[in-house]
Amino acid sequence: MKQNKTQVYNFQSEVKQLLHLMIHSLYSNKEIFLRELISNSSDAIDKLRFSSISLPELYENDTDVKIQISINKAQKTLIISDNGIGMTKKDTIDNLGTIAKSGTKSFLQSLKKIKDKKNELIGEFGVGFYSSFIVSDKVSVRTRFAGKKPNEGILWESSGEGEYSITDIIKKTRGTEITLFLKKEEEEFLEIWRIKNIISKYSDHITVPVYIQNYDEKNKTYFWEQINKAKALWTLNKSSINDNEYKDFYKHITNDQNDPLIWSHNHVEGNQEYISLLYIPEKAAWDIWNRDNKHGLKLYVKRVYIMDNSQEFLPNYLRFIRGLIDSSDLPLNISREILQGNSVTENLKKALIKRSLNMLTKLAQENSEKYQIFWNQFGLVLKEGPAEDQENLNKIAHLLRFASLKNNSSEQKLSLKEYINNMNPKQDKIYYITSDSHESAKNSPHLELFKKNNIDVLLLSDRIDEWMMNYLIEFEGKKFQSISKEDLSLNKLTEEKKIKNNELPNEMIDFLKRSKKALGDKVKDVRLTYRLTETPCVLLSDSNEMTTQMAKLFSAAGQSVPELKYIFEINPNHALIQKICSIHNENEFNEWIKLLLDEALLAEKGNLENPHKFISRINKLLLI
């Protein structure tokens, strides 16, 4: 008889690092290995159900799908088997020998940095199979892909020490059987009560029945006992599901160790029939800003699993929403390509966006403390909403939170509704300033007028804020106004009418003319202002031109930026301006005006094109 050939392979380097971390320091809660393996088996059965829609022969005349667990105390082995889709030889190499998902290195770095919460990172990353080695000296996997011949089975074996072997075997049944050769100190996992407890805790609501092999002492026979409910929780009546069951189901479908902040479970009938179960997490996924971040809802059609991470039902700014949708109106063989152009998908998307925003609104209204937790984790993501979803702009605007001049904190807590309720009777706009940092924003000279008149200003320092404000035009009839841009409506708060009515001393009129001559085309205009109280001068952008912050965003993205020409405003009441006004030497006067412009540019932009020239000018004037 021909002996089966065994081939030995080396693990991918990242897998070696991962195995080392797990075996030596990773899991504090070792029982999670069973949750991960059960979850993988459940996924394999879901994939079989989906594939069999078009290829029913994959069932091989066995439609009774299940997961089975057996224990052999004599050999100290724990066996988890399923009759799901199974794996080919290529699948075993791709799935068990490498980590295909990009971003692996940053993931491993995250594990090394974070001592706690490592369990949830493993689950989120989808490499839970390797958790087997935390409790095992050796792991063997017998598998055969559905529809393949019995002699096309594969045996994968490893001790988790850098290499694994693959052998061609005969396997009569489809699916996968994982045998864990447990370490001596992990023999607690050979107790049936312990396994039942773990399954009840983590896997009660997976839609596949899980059986454990038990022994009947009376009849001296073995029998299989189902140990989970195996009912699709979302199909049950809401009144029959308690909060803990909702939370456990969330943890099952997301591998998140934290409870969700809030959830929404809805059965909808009528023109469209569907069930949605949406969750808002307590913490952001570690890779939420990665381009390949896997987000979206699990899609079921008539209770049949179709796909994970279906992004067609929610926009990108709601990518933190987790959960599922079960539609009765989509065909079972729906694909991602068909979903994108499907009218049913569009209608479902609109309904789910509304449901998600209502869920957030409810959280904000009923539990401000929890909403603040949400905002601190996902506020930056939600800020993408105004640009992406004009149809729901008003709802999104109500959910936004800001830091402000009066709140004296960098934490973003103030809603636009609260801002309007606390507006100064003199003001008719919502004022804001964008900057590189909160510290820079709160110390801007543009704020001096507002401090003097007791007017609050929103302090925006996130990179996305400038972009967002291009789409936030007004809120409840109040227009937004950047205080770093020209705005004639502010004149009623100042003494600008003196300038308009030419009620200026002759020396100031002369000073203005000399300043314009000294600066030439370096600025768009030079004018006097009474908006400043402590600063000699400031730069304003023209109301129709790009702001400094927007120019920085374009530049950082590698886009060409037109030259910015500012309006140079000078405070005639400032002692330094009055001193310069009395200088008769034209060269000295010009140096002072250019120095003031450089100072204003530095305050506005945070940098100068020629800092050495700026320093040289200061030194020169100090010697006069």
Structural class: alpha+beta
Largest sheet, in brief, is: 9 strands, mixed
What's the total helix number?
A: 23
- CATH fold field value of the largest domain: Heat Shock Protein 90
Number of strands: 22
- Beta-strand portion reads 15-25%
Number of domains: 4
Bulk shape: elongated
Poorly predicted residue ranges = 100-104, 114-126
Could you describe the 3D structure shown?
- Pfam families: HATPase_c_3, HSP90.
- Keywords: ATP-binding, Chaperone, Cytoplasm, Nucleotide-binding, Stress response.
- Homodimer.
- Belongs to the heat shock protein 90 family.
- This protein is of the alpha+beta class.
- It starts with 5 loop residues before the first strand and ends with a helix.
- A 9-stranded mixed sheet has the order 1-6-5-4-7-3-2-8-9.
- A hairpin with a 4-residue loop joins strand 2 (67-72) and strand 3 (77-82).
- The radius of gyration is 33 Å and the shape is elongated.
- The protein has 4 domains: 6-226, Histidine kinase-like ATPase, C-terminal domain (Heat Shock Protein 90, 2-Layer Sandwich), CATH 3.30.565; 233-376, Ribosomal Protein S5, domain 2; 401-483, Rossmann fold, CATH 3.40.50; 493-622, Four Helix Bundle (Hemerythrin (Met), subunit A).
- Helix 19 crosses helix 22 and helix 22 packs across helix 23.
- Residues 100-104 and 114-126 have low confidence and may be disordered.
- 37% of the residues lie in helices and 20% in strands.
- The longest helix has 24 residues, at 343-366.
For this entry, give a set of tags.
5-stranded mixed beta sheet; Ribosomal Protein S5, domain 2; 624 residues; 9-stranded mixed beta sheet; Rossmann fold; alpha+beta; elongated; Heat Shock Protein 90; 37% helix; Hsp90_N
